[in-house]
């Protein structure tokens, strides 16, 4: 693909979605993430999009001659120093904890949780998931009574988070309050992904052909289910798909067409996004807020959709006059720019967990416009890229701590993997050391310094890990001795010990352990609690562990009991 063609496609994709992450664009355009980042910087410099942390946002909604406030700090400034208030959505306990740690470790800032508590927020902005689910269940039961003599066989496409589980529970309770004999044929975790929902729907309908009601906890799951039904040639008169969301254009269009989607629970991202910004301003000004700000919901059908949404310029727009008259707002919402008495935060950050979901695209569009009216900067943070960057930074710190333990005259063994490459970079300025390694990236980095003696083990080259393995490599290690081994693995747990994914690499790791006087494990907290396929060794072979302070204190204590010295790289 020509460079200019790719740039134009990037603009088109971002304009369509409002926001896209680097990872999504890389997959869609079949180029590396490095190429995408370079393209986004070029397009940002040309004023064709807004570069954000982990991706880019569209300028389409700004209007001619207008511009959002320019971000005054580079994106290399740590997250907690860039924003005054954070709006965040729960992803999973591990990631939520890391984000809270990164936000709160250096600077205490208010957090507004969207949809679900993350444990340390000022308030949660969310719909009443249970009540909304019950109401949609009542609607489905009435439909079954009118069309199928009350027969209801349900496929529940849910997700593991508490709020989505509550939606499913409310929906099922709602149906059974009207139809006690209704049957839940299957309840499956569709992982909040289109392809998973599509596959699960096909499989479920193949095995349980009596299913006539599919409940989806969000639009992307519903869309996967709808397309599975279409591709299987199912008669729309014998099966309905009900969505919890009506997040953007896709399911509103499907609802208007009236085939499989006969009704949907509208959560109104336009209202939620506006309330989130108002809650962020209130939290910044230390105004008291309730534990939850409950936003309105409504069941919409093809007939009632135009009453609350109008279709204009290929987009469904909320009729704000109807919404404000019909639904109570948990906080006053300013639809026009107005003079305010409270202090406006300099910048509000919004953590996006699923950039491909229309819910978050709609929230981004609303929040950006609302922040602009307030004169506040708005930064979109792709959670996956943010966490990846945080973990990458941690691994560099671990590597630097390891390098500080290598004195002149030392003979060291370095294993393969990303952490090993970071260690090689940290060792590059050392003098008079000998490095034994089976990792080609380590060799390529260290060969730039003639003051470092490098011994390659030899062996068969494994392309996926760029490591030398096999009997030749293991035989070489039997003839060598090292002062220290810097070891990496893919899993660490107290019961299974050190583990790894490939047997050919496991045997050479074991040979390295036998050849070293001291074993130093390099592992950030993400490796712990994981059991990979093959055991390398008991944790008791480790003399020292270099890790980060996100590893829970309870785990560190148990490892200390085994005689392992714990070194925190970022302490």
Question: Could you write a compact summary of the structure shown?
Answer:
With 571 residues, the protein is α/β, with parallel strands linked by helices. The strands form seven sheets. A seven-stranded parallel β-sheet has the order 20-19-18-23-26-28-29, with helices on both faces. Strands 12-6-5-4-16-17 form a six-stranded parallel β-sheet.
Class computed from helices, strands and strand pairing: alpha/beta
The DSSP helix count reads 20
- Could you say what the CATH topology of the domain at 404-568 is called? Rossmann fold
Low-confidence runs of at least 5 consecutive residues: 61-76
The percentage of residues in β strands lies in 15-25%
The total strand number stands at: 29
The backbone outline, from C-alpha atoms, is globular
Determine Rg (CA atoms, Å). Answer: 27 Å
Secondary-structure arrangement, i.e. CATH architecture of the domain at 404-568 = 3-Layer(aba) Sandwich
Output the CATH class name of the domain at 404-568: Alpha Beta
Question: In the CATH hierarchy, what is the superfamily of the domain at 404-568?
Answer: Translation initiation factor eif-2b, domain 2
Largest sheet: 7 strands, parallel
What is the helical fraction, as a range of percent? 40-55%
Averaged pLDDT: 88
* First and last CA, distance: 47 Å
Strand order of the biggest β-sheet: 20-19-18-23-26-28-29
């Amino acid at each position: 693909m020509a460079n200019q063609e790719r740039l134009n496609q990037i603009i088109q994709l971002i304009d369509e979605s409002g926001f896209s992450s680097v990872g999504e664009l890389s997959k869609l355009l079949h180029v590396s993430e490095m190429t995408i980042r370079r393209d986004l910087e070029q397009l940002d410099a040309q004023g064709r999009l807004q570069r954000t942390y982990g991706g880019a946002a569209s300028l389409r909604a700004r209007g001619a001659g207008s511009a959002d406030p320019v971000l005054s700090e580079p994106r290399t400034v740590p997250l907690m120093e860039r924003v005054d208030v954070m709006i965040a959505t729960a992803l999973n306990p591990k990631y939520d904890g890391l984000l809270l740690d990164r936000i709160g470790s250096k600077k205490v800032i208010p957090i507004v949780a969207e949809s679900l508590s993350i444990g340390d927020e000022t308030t949660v902005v969310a719909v009443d998931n249970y009540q909304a689910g019950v109401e949609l269940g009542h609607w489905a039961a009435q439909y079954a009574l009118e069309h199928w003599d009350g027969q209801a066989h349900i496929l529940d496409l849910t997700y593991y988070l508490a709020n989505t589980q509550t939606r499913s529970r409310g929906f099922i309770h709602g149906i059974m309050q009207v139809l006690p004999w209704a049957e839940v044929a299957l309840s499956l975790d569709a992982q909040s992904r289109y392809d998973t929902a599509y596959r699960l729907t096909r499989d479920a309908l193949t095995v349980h052909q009596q299913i006539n009601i599919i409940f989806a906890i969000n639009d992307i799951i519903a869309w996967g289910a709808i397309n599975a039904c279409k591709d299987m040639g199912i008669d729309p008169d014998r099966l309905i798909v009900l969505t919890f969301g009506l997040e953007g254009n896709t399911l509103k269009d499907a609802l208007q067409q009236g085939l499989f989607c006969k009704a949907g629970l509208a959560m109104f991202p336009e209202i939620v996004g506006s309330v989130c910004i108002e809650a962020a301003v209130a939290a910044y000004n230390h105004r008291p807020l309730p534990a939850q700000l409950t936003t309105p919901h409504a069941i919409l059908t093809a007939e009632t959709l135009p009453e609350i949404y109008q279709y204009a310029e290929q987009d469904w727009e909320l009729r704000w006059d109807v919404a404000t008259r019909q639904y109570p707002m948990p906080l006053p919402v300013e639809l026009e720019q107005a003079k305010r008495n409270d202090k406006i935060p300099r910048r509000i950050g919004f953590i996006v967990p699923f950039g491909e979901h229309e819910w978050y695209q709609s929230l981004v569009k609303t929040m950006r416009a609302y922040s602009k009216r307030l004169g506040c900067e708005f930064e979109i943070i792709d959670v996956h890229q943010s966490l990846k960057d945080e973990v990458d930074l941690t691994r560099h710190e671990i590597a630097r701590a390891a390098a500080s333990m290598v004195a002149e005259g030392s003979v060291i063994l370095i294993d393969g993997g990303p952490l090993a490459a970071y260690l090689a970079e940290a060792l590059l300025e050392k003098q008079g050391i000998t490095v034994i390694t089976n990792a080609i990236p380590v060799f390529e980095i260290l060969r730039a310094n003639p003051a470092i003696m490098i011994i390659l083990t030899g062996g068969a080259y494994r392309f996926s890990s760029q490591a030398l393995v096999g009997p030749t490599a293991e035989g070489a290690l039997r003839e060598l001795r090292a002062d220290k081994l810097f070891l990496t693995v893919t899993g660490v747990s107290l019961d299974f010990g050190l583990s790894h994914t490939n047997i050919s690499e496991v045997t050479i790791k074991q040979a390295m352990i036998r050849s070293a006087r001291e074993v130093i494990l390099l592992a950030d907290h993400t490796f712990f609690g994981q059991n990979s396929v093959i055991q390398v060794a008991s944790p008791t072979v480790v003399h020292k562990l270099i890790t980060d302070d996100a590893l829970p204190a309870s785990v560190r204590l148990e490892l200390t009991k085994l005689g392992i010295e714990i070194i925190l790289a970022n302490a």
